[in-house]
Design brief:
Shape: flat
Radius of gyration: 33 Å
Strand order of the largest sheet: 3-2-7
Order of helices and strands: HHHHEHHEEEEEEHEHEHHEHH
Number of domains: 3
Distance between the termini: 75 Å
Number of helices: 12
Low-confidence stretches: 1-13
Largest sheet: 3 strands, antiparallel
Helix content: 40-55%
Length: 401
């Protein structure tokens, strides 16, 4: 008997055999992998495509809701004692006393896009978002993570106090920003913005040229140019600085091919930025409205919902409840009224839902009536129309009889 208990204890306590090596490879603690995080975040303020794409993703994901169902018997939650009604309130109505759920979810998705990691502290009553750049992960020699440490102070968190969500990446513990793969394109885009700004602001190309066959000294030429600047005032009205050419030199206008190349390169970089974030370019195109609806559905199914599922599965594992994605608030995924009414009528008439449940799906008031809360049994189901005392009820009549 003792041998059997010994074997059972060995199997129940068995952990990842190479976890000590993994912990040593990642050092005593695993900090943020985003060495160029500031440049990635600066892209939001400098590059309009990045700003629009990130805002679209974060706010679209924040419109989704969590559908809290029963607790699965096969899942052992990390934290115990949280009721389903409490979890529904935390996820869909009031995550903490200071934020509404939309703002809370926007910040979570923003952290995932910019840093590749989400840290949510649960104090036993409320959920609090912790900035990823402040936390370092403390690896465990036997298990996976021992805890979390605030890099800016002495605050530490136990493993079971934190809901940790990571995106993809080569690091064992931390994810990486989805913009990391296009860091070079972002840097090129920065240079384009700077080049065009310098060109128009500093007068790289002259606004007007004055010719003279005489050879002027440097002081004389500078005096002429300054005099022209004072008279023409190029700093006002957007005009550019005049130039004086002496000794028979001629000026040739700057070709516009350079700007055409920059424009084409900018469009290609913007397309790569959208592709890295999973956004169809047609969504941000102001001219193409024909494919808008299919593109929006593709955007939600391929970009928004997968991000939301990462967060949802983390909450499932942490609290132990069965969760699902509620898309009822998303206008882009909502069916038209005729299709929705036909679908609900079919569900009611086939005995899947009650009439009051159909009214709730349409956000209508329920009706206090026993029939409205009763499942309708279809008459064409075998035996459903048969009377209990008449075994022949429901059978087609035979005229010959």
């Amino acid at each position: 008997m003792g041998i059997i208990l010994n074997i059972k204890n060995r199997f129940s306590e068995k952990q990842n055999p190479i976890q000590p090596e993994i912990a040593r490879e990642n050092g005593e603690k695993s900090g943020s992998t985003q060495r160029n995080r500031l440049s990635v975040e600066a892209a939001i303020t400098k590059i309009s495509t990045v700003q629009r794409a990130v805002t679209l993703l974060t706010e679209s994901a924040a419109t989704l809701r969590f559908d809290v169902k029963g607790r699965p018997n096969s899942v052992e939650p990390i934290i115990k004692g949280v009721r389903a009604a409490t979890l529904d309130r935390l996820l869909n109505y009031a995550p903490n006393p200071y934020q509404d759920p939309f703002q809370f979810k926007v910040q979570l998705v923003f952290d995932l896009l910019m840093d590749g990691n989400i840290f949510i502290y649960f104090d036993g009553q409320y959920l609090h978002r912790i900035p990823p750049r402040r936390l370092t992960i403390v690896p465990d020699q036997r298990e996976w993570i021992a805890g979390y440490r605030d890099s800016g102070g002495d605050v530490t968190f136990d493993f079971d106090e934190m809901v940790f969500i990571r995106d993809g990446g080569p690091d064992q513990y931390r994810g990486q920003s989805r913009l990391t793969s296009i860091r070079e394109e972002i840097s090129t885009r920065f240079n384009q913005v700077k080049y065009l700004g310098d060109f128009f602001e500093n007068g790289v190309a002259p606004g007007s040229v004055f010719y003279t066959d005489a050879v002027l000294g440097k002081k004389m030429k500078d005096r002429y140019e300054q005099d022209l600047v004072n008279k023409l005032s190029p700093s006002k009205g957007g005009s550019r600085r005049p130039v004086v050419l002496d000794g028979g030199f001629k000026y040739q206008a700057v070709s516009t091919e350079r700007f055409t190349e920059i424009s084409q390169s900018t469009a290609a970089i913007d397309a790569n930025i959208l592709a890295a974030l999973g956004i169809p370019p047609v969504i941000l195109s102001p001219t193409n409205n024909v494919q808008a609806r299919p593109a929006q559905e593709l955007f939600y199914h391929n970009a928004v919902i997968p991000i939301f599922l990462r967060i949802m599965h983390a909450f499932e594992r942490y609290f132990g409840y069965d969760l699902d994605v509620d898309i009822s608030k998303v206008a882009a995924l909502a069916p038209d009224m005729q299709a929705q009414s036909q679908n609900l009528s079919t569900l009611v008439n086939n005995g899947i839902i009650t009439p009051n449940e159909a009214r709730q799906a349409l956000r209508k008031e329920t009706i206090t009536n026993q029939d409205m809360d009763t499942i309708r049994i279809p008459a064409n189901i075998a035996g459903s129309a048969a009377g209990g005392d008449n075994p022949g009820a429901g059978r087609p009549s035979n005229e010959e009889d």
